[in-house]
Amino acid sequence: MIDTYSRHRPLALLAIVVVAQVLLLAFQIKGEHDVRMIRYWAVALVTPLERAGTWSFSKVGGAWGGYVGLRNARAENERMRTELDQLRLRNRELESQAAEVQRLSTALNFRNAHTEAGMLAAQVIGSSADPTSHTLFINRGEHDRLRVNMGVVTPDGIVGKIVEVLPNTAQVLLINDKDSGVGALFSASRTHGVVRGSGDPEPRMEYVVNDEKVQAGDAIVTSGEDRIFPKDFPIGTVESAKPGSPFQVIRVQPSARLDRLEEVLVLLTQQEVVFKKPEVPVAAGAEAAGEPAAGAPRAKTAMANPSAAPQ
Amino acid sequence: MGYMLNVGERSDPNVEVHKFYSGAVLAVCLLALVFQAFLHKYGRWSELIDLPLLVTIYFGVSRRNPVTGLFLGGTIGILQDALSHDNPIGMYGIAKTIIGYLASSIGGRIDTEHPLSRFALVFFFFHFHQIILAITQRVLLNHSAPLFTLRLFLDSLMTAAFAVPLFALLDRLRRPS
After folding, report:
1. CA dist B57 to A146, A214, B23, B104, Å?
2. CA of A52, closest CA in chain B: separation in Å?
3. Which residues lie closer than 8 Å to A30 by C-beta, 6 or more apart?
């Protein structure tokens, strides 16, 4: 062993001296990025070791963590599933509330836009137990100044009228109930008729002669003659029309979603009310003749329907 | 002159190591560096001869001790770098360290006293020295240094020719055994 060492000592010394001078050169020389080569070599030498060490630690740590974590995975999974279900439920509640807010906002805007008649918002709290009867119960009653024969509407169109008033509840007869009838006319031709319920989801417009040209999609509005609803308020549109005897058989698609009512507006007045129409320029001749401006509200104190007198 | 042409003392790697007068090695090495730097300012012709390289080879083959040879070569090379303008220190040091080691190793194996052998030895060591320098410059300095050119060939012939009388002159500094 000593002979081997002594035999190779000069070679080892040569290597040491050469390496020392190479390091000396590396300390002086700067590479492309203005970094001393000695620093570049040191980083290049150490970086693979650091990467290997980091990789090893991450693998070992990951394996251990996977084992330990797996033991709690089931419980955490159950916990997260429960939390997810709760969040979904909460989300649905919030969506429902948001939709309700939207509806109420629409109703409020409608009420504020039509200050000609007092309105009271009410929520639908129930419907009739009889499948052949189309009625609703709302959460307003006598204590809220409701009276029989007050009209019930939504911003989309008319809904029905109050037929029974209890202290804190009222029953509403929908326009598609067989006992319901609303004075109506065609918006375009101004032909009068009556929208009467038939027990089906769609009411019908009656007393329209066969000569009258009626097409699907024609708008039907209130005539105001029943003194319950304001004039020219949407009822619905013609769904189908065919000749009959002696009058046409016209099916009406209500404007208001009678099967999805949640909030409604009760017209607190029992006087004839005409909602204002959007302002239009008045012709000079018409104004000079003394005709009132179109859409101007007018109220009559005379009650056309004695049964609707306030109690 | 006959002395130079004679086969001379037979080189015995196991026995004979030439010794020099005290301070002779140091003085010759310093003089070689001084002359190399001094003569340089009188023209490019001085680049034809590499005195430090000759001194390294001579003392390497004479001492026949690889350890001594590599340290001597390294010292001479580093000093030569220090005396240059833009050479990083260590460039000639590496080359002459290796040359010193090889010269010392070879000195004990072949006849280095004959003029022809000295001429051939210097010729090959010159080119080997140049190869080491070129590799060092290419790897570390990123310079495209030539490995072999006609100019280098002529330089090697000049250096080898100059080495024969120089080595004969340096033989006078040997301490008689």
Report:
1. 125, 124, 18, 8
2. 28
3. A36, A37
Cβ contact A13–B74 (<8 Å)? no
Q: Any chain A CB within 8 A of the CB of B140?
A: yes
Give residue for tokens 């009556």. Answer: A194
Which residues on chain B are in Cβ contact (under 8 Å) with A16?
none
- ipTM of the complex model: 0.74
Burial (CB < 10 A; 0-12, 13-18, 19+), residue B1, is exposed
The pLDDT value given to residue A204: 93
If you average pLDDT over residues A59-71, what whole number do you get? 80
Residue A246: is the preceding peptide bond cis (ω within 30°)? yes
Give the model's pLDDT for residue A22: 87
Q: Which of A262, A282, A272 is nearest to A116 (CA)?
A: A272
B108 reaches A (C-beta below 8 A): no
Is A35 touching B (CB cutoff 8 A)?
no
Within an 8 Å CB–CB cutoff, is residue A188 touching chain B? no
DSSP B110-122: S--SSHHHHHHHH
Q: Scanning the structure block, which residue is given the tokens 């020295």?
A: B129
Domains of chain A plus CATH, in order, are 119-267 (2.40.10.340)
Cβ pair A25:B136 closer than 8 A? yes
Contact in structure between B72 and B114 (CB atoms under 8 Å): no
pLDDT in tens, A140-197: 998 888 898 899 999 889 999 999 998 889 999 999 998 899 999 999 889 999 999 9
- Counting one residue from chain A and one from chain B, the pairs whose CB atoms sit within 8 A come to 54
The verdict on pTM exceeding 0.95 is: no
CB contact under 8 A, B89 and A13: no
Percent of chain A with pLDDT over 90: 23
pLDDT score at B64: 81
Q: How far apart are CA B129 and CA B49, in angstroms?
A: 13
Question: Which residues of chain B does A28 touch, with a Cβ-Cβ cutoff of 8 Å?
Answer: 88-90
Specify the higher pLDDT residue, A89 or A309: A89
